[in-house]
Amino acid sequence: LTELDKFKATPLVSRMLDNISARIGLSDRISFEDAKLIYQTCAFETAWHPKSPSPWCALFSKDDLEILEYSEDLKYYWIDGYGYPITYKQACVAVNDMFHHLTDESHPPYTFYFTHSGTILKVLSHLQLYRDPLPLSADLFNKTRLWRTSQIDVFGSNLAFVLFSCKDGYKILTMHQERPVTLPGCPEDDLCPLDSLQDFYRHSIENCDFDQFCHLDT
């Protein structure tokens, strides 16, 4: 069973489903899948019409929303995040490409890539951003977690690396959702020296064999 499957079988989720069923007026318990569909409809309608509350959202309490949000985070933590090393290690290709474009002056001054949210999450994990001290699991409902897909993987999610030529060398500004973020090995309140960033991710740069990651013995 996946951690999400285990979470769906917990008393916490069962009570949530009972509460939602009672608000709807159902005699039988609503399924988790149907509750999740209502949750997604609530989320999309809220995004599309932020000034007009979605009637679907009225079926949830604040606790219900937090539980459903955690189920979403749990799902993508293990599919696109820190759950399995191979998941984020494969993002070394994108990180290597970023360094290549920043250090090769023959490239155009701007490089843009467009991708799916799963790739964004893999790259964020490879960069070691939003990593919690303990893995997300079914039996640890962590309300203070860093891994929140509703914040780090939103509509139009984006990641940018900006190179500055300073008096003391090249430095990098990293931005996620147009906000500066501090990468591991970088100063908290200043631009990050390019050399420091390359040193921190050197193992990734020098051991990036995508074909080997995806190799299956036959």
UniProtKB/TrEMBL annotation:
Q: Does the keyword Hydrolase apply?
A: yes
Q: Which Pfam families match?
A: His_Phos_2
Q: Mind telling me which CDD domains this protein's record contains?
A: HP_HAP_like
| GO MF terms, alphabetically ordered | acid phosphatase activity; inositol phosphate phosphatase activity
Task: State whether keyword Iron applies.
Answer: no
Q: Which SUPFAM superfamilies match?
A: Phosphoglycerate mutase-like
InterPro entries according to UniProt:
His_Pase_clade-2, His_PPase_superfam
Q: Keywords assigned by UniProt?
A: Hydrolase
Q: What is this protein called?
A: Multiple inositol polyphosphate phosphatase 1
Say which species the protein is native to: Homalodisca liturata
Q: What is the lineage of its organism?
A: Eukaryota, Metazoa, Ecdysozoa, Arthropoda, Hexapoda
